[in-house]
Task: inverse folding
Protein backbone atom coordinates (compact mmCIF):
# COMPACT_ATOMS: atom_id res chain seq x y z
CA UNK A 1 0.00 0.00 0.00
CA UNK A 2 1.38 3.41 -0.98
CA UNK A 3 0.19 6.96 -0.63
CA UNK A 4 -0.87 8.61 -3.87
CA UNK A 5 -2.22 12.06 -4.64
CA UNK A 6 -5.92 12.52 -5.32
CA UNK A 7 -6.49 13.93 -8.80
CA UNK A 8 -9.31 16.12 -7.54
CA UNK A 9 -8.23 17.61 -4.18
CA UNK A 10 -4.46 16.84 -4.32
CA UNK A 11 -4.42 15.30 -0.82
CA UNK A 12 -2.66 12.05 0.05
CA UNK A 13 -4.77 8.87 -0.01
CA UNK A 14 -4.17 5.14 -0.08
CA UNK A 15 -3.45 3.52 -3.44
CA UNK A 16 -5.94 0.76 -2.55
CA UNK A 17 -8.82 3.14 -1.81
CA UNK A 18 -11.74 3.08 -4.25
CA UNK A 19 -12.63 6.73 -3.54
CA UNK A 20 -10.90 9.72 -1.97
CA UNK A 21 -11.64 9.99 1.74
CA UNK A 22 -11.42 13.80 1.58
CA UNK A 23 -13.51 14.74 -1.46
CA UNK A 24 -15.14 11.46 -2.52
CA UNK A 25 -13.67 11.41 -6.04
CA UNK A 26 -13.74 7.86 -7.50
CA UNK A 27 -10.13 6.70 -7.85
CA UNK A 28 -10.89 3.39 -9.65
CA UNK A 29 -12.77 5.11 -12.48
CA UNK A 30 -10.01 7.71 -12.83
CA UNK A 31 -7.33 5.01 -13.08
CA UNK A 32 -9.39 3.16 -15.73
CA UNK A 33 -9.87 6.31 -17.79
CA UNK A 34 -6.15 7.16 -17.49
CA UNK A 35 -5.24 3.72 -18.85
CA UNK A 36 -7.25 4.25 -22.05
CA UNK A 37 -5.34 6.03 -24.86
CA UNK A 38 -6.94 9.16 -26.26
CA UNK A 39 -6.87 9.71 -30.01
CA UNK A 40 -5.91 13.28 -30.86
CA UNK A 41 -6.69 14.90 -34.23
CA UNK A 42 -3.82 14.81 -36.73
CA UNK A 43 -1.51 17.85 -36.64
CA UNK A 44 -3.50 19.61 -33.95
CA UNK A 45 -2.24 21.07 -30.71
CA UNK A 46 -4.18 20.82 -27.48
CA UNK A 47 -4.88 23.74 -25.21
CA UNK A 48 -3.71 23.23 -21.63
CA UNK A 49 -4.85 25.47 -18.80
CA UNK A 50 -2.32 24.63 -16.15
CA UNK A 51 -0.66 21.51 -14.82
CA UNK A 52 -3.72 19.72 -13.47
CA UNK A 53 -4.35 16.19 -14.77
CA UNK A 54 -6.63 16.05 -17.76
CA UNK A 55 -10.14 14.66 -17.50
CA UNK A 56 -10.32 12.27 -20.44
CA UNK A 57 -14.10 12.09 -20.19
CA UNK A 58 -14.27 15.68 -21.46
CA UNK A 59 -13.28 16.22 -25.10
CA UNK A 60 -10.25 18.47 -25.56
CA UNK A 61 -10.24 21.53 -27.75
CA UNK A 62 -7.97 21.34 -30.76
CA UNK A 63 -6.26 24.19 -32.57
CA UNK A 64 -5.32 24.36 -36.20
CA UNK A 65 -1.58 24.21 -36.86
CA UNK A 66 0.12 27.58 -36.48
CA UNK A 67 0.84 29.44 -39.70
CA UNK A 68 4.21 31.13 -39.89
CA UNK A 69 3.67 34.91 -39.89
CA UNK A 70 5.25 36.86 -42.68
CA UNK A 71 8.25 38.96 -41.65
CA UNK A 72 7.42 42.59 -41.07
CA UNK A 73 8.88 44.73 -43.82
CA UNK A 74 9.41 48.39 -43.03
CA UNK A 75 9.64 50.81 -45.94
CA UNK A 76 12.96 52.59 -46.23
CA UNK A 77 11.26 55.98 -45.91
CA UNK A 78 9.87 55.08 -42.48
CA UNK A 79 13.34 54.14 -41.25
CA UNK A 80 14.81 57.40 -42.51
CA UNK A 81 11.98 59.36 -40.91
CA UNK A 82 12.58 57.71 -37.54
CA UNK A 83 16.30 58.39 -37.69
CA UNK A 84 15.70 62.06 -38.59
CA UNK A 85 13.24 62.47 -35.71
CA UNK A 86 15.73 60.95 -33.29
CA UNK A 87 18.48 63.30 -34.50
CA UNK A 88 16.20 66.33 -34.19
CA UNK A 89 15.24 65.33 -30.65
CA UNK A 90 18.92 65.12 -29.70
CA UNK A 91 19.66 68.50 -31.27
CA UNK A 92 16.77 70.23 -29.49
CA UNK A 93 17.59 68.92 -26.01
CA UNK A 94 20.96 70.67 -25.70
CA UNK A 95 21.69 74.34 -25.09
CA UNK A 96 24.28 76.08 -27.33
CA UNK A 97 26.93 75.43 -24.66
CA UNK A 98 26.01 71.73 -24.62
CA UNK A 99 24.26 71.75 -21.24
CA UNK A 100 20.85 70.38 -20.45
CA UNK A 101 18.05 72.98 -20.55
CA UNK A 102 16.13 73.75 -17.38
CA UNK A 103 12.50 72.78 -17.92
CA UNK A 104 9.76 75.34 -17.32
CA UNK A 105 8.25 73.49 -14.37
CA UNK A 106 11.67 73.35 -12.70
CA UNK A 107 12.24 77.09 -13.15
CA UNK A 108 8.92 77.88 -11.47
CA UNK A 109 9.41 75.42 -8.63
CA UNK A 110 13.00 76.56 -7.95
CA UNK A 111 11.66 80.11 -7.68
CA UNK A 112 8.77 79.15 -5.37
CA UNK A 113 10.29 76.32 -3.27
CA UNK A 114 14.06 76.41 -3.74
CA UNK A 115 14.80 74.31 -0.64
CA UNK A 116 13.21 71.31 -2.35
CA UNK A 117 13.60 71.80 -6.07
CA UNK A 118 17.08 73.33 -6.41
CA UNK A 119 18.53 69.85 -5.87
CA UNK A 120 17.17 68.80 -9.28
CA UNK A 121 19.85 71.04 -10.80
CA UNK A 122 22.47 68.56 -9.58
CA UNK A 123 21.38 66.03 -12.24
CA UNK A 124 23.85 65.25 -15.02
CA UNK A 125 23.97 67.77 -17.83
CA UNK A 126 23.09 71.01 -16.03
CA UNK A 127 25.77 73.69 -16.33
CA UNK A 128 27.60 75.40 -13.49
CA UNK A 129 25.82 78.64 -14.41
CA UNK A 130 22.39 77.07 -13.94
CA UNK A 131 23.45 75.57 -10.61
CA UNK A 132 24.92 78.92 -9.48
CA UNK A 133 21.64 80.72 -10.17
CA UNK A 134 19.59 78.04 -8.38
CA UNK A 135 21.75 77.71 -5.29
CA UNK A 136 22.36 81.48 -5.26
CA UNK A 137 18.61 82.04 -5.06
CA UNK A 138 18.41 79.49 -2.23
CA UNK A 139 21.26 81.22 -0.37
CA UNK A 140 19.63 84.64 -0.88
CA UNK A 141 16.33 83.42 0.59
CA UNK A 142 18.11 81.79 3.57
CA UNK A 143 20.05 85.03 4.16
CA UNK A 144 16.90 87.16 3.89
CA UNK A 145 15.01 84.93 6.31
CA UNK A 146 17.85 84.99 8.85
CA UNK A 147 18.15 88.81 8.70
CA UNK A 148 14.43 89.51 8.98
CA UNK A 149 13.22 90.87 12.33
CA UNK A 150 11.30 88.43 14.44
Result:
Amino acid sequence: MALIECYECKKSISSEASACIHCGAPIDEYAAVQAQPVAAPAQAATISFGSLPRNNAVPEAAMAPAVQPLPKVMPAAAGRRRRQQAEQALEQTANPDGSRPVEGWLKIMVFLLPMVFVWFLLRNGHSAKQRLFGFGWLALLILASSLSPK
Summary: Residues 1-36 form one domain. The first helix runs from residue 27 to 35. The longest strand covers residues 3-5. Strands lie at 3-5, 12-14, 45-46, 62-63.
